[in-house]
Specification:
Length: about 130
C-alpha cells in the first residue's frame, strides 16, 4: 500500500503540565517538575497525531525509537508546546525532529522514529 506523508511538514500540540506529569509522582525523579518520560510522551503523541492525519483507516504508527535531551525544568501548571516535524519517510519508516517549549524557552529536543503498521495484523501477531 502507498502512503502519502509529506516530508518537512510540522504538527504542533499544546499540553498543560499536570500532577500526573510530575517526576516525583511518576517515580522518575525527586522534584515537582515535568518528568522526562512525560515530555517524551508528549513528543510521541504529537508525532503520532501528525502521521495519523495522513493514514487510511486501519493503519496506525507505533513508536520505535526516541533520542531526546531534556534541557530545562518546567513546573506544574505551565503550558508546553510540542512541535514534531517529519524529516524522513521511507518504506513505512518515519523520522521526526521533535522540540518542546515553555513559552519561548526550549525545554527539550531530539528525534523520534515511528513505523506504519496495519493495526489488525499488528495486534494479531502479539
Amino acid at each position: 500500500m502507498e502512503f502519502d506523508l509529506p516530508v518537512d511538514t510540522t504538527h504542533v500540540e499544546k499540553f498543560t503540565v499536570e500532577e500526573k506529569h510530575i517526576a516525583d509522582m511518576l517515580g522518575s525523579g525527586k522534584v515537582a517538575v515535568l518528568s522526562t518520560p512525560s515530555m517524551i510522551l508528549m513528543m510521541e503523541h504529537t508525532a503520532m497525531n501528525h502521521a495519523q492525519e495522513h493514514l487510511p483507516d486501519g493503519w496506525i504508527t507505533v513508536g520505535t525509537k526516541v533520542c531526546i535531551s531534556h534541557l530545562r525544568a518546567s513546573k506544574q501548571g505551565v503550558e508546553v508546546s510540542v512541535k514534531a516535524k517529519l524529516t524522513s519517510f521511507e518504506n513505512k519508516h518515519l523520522i521526526y525532529d521533535v522540540e518542546a517549549f515553555e513559552g519561548e524557552n526550549k525545554i527539550g529536543e531530539g528525534t523520534h522514529e515511528r513505523h506504519i503498521v496495519n493495526k489488525e495484523k499488528f495486534i494479531a501477531r502479539l
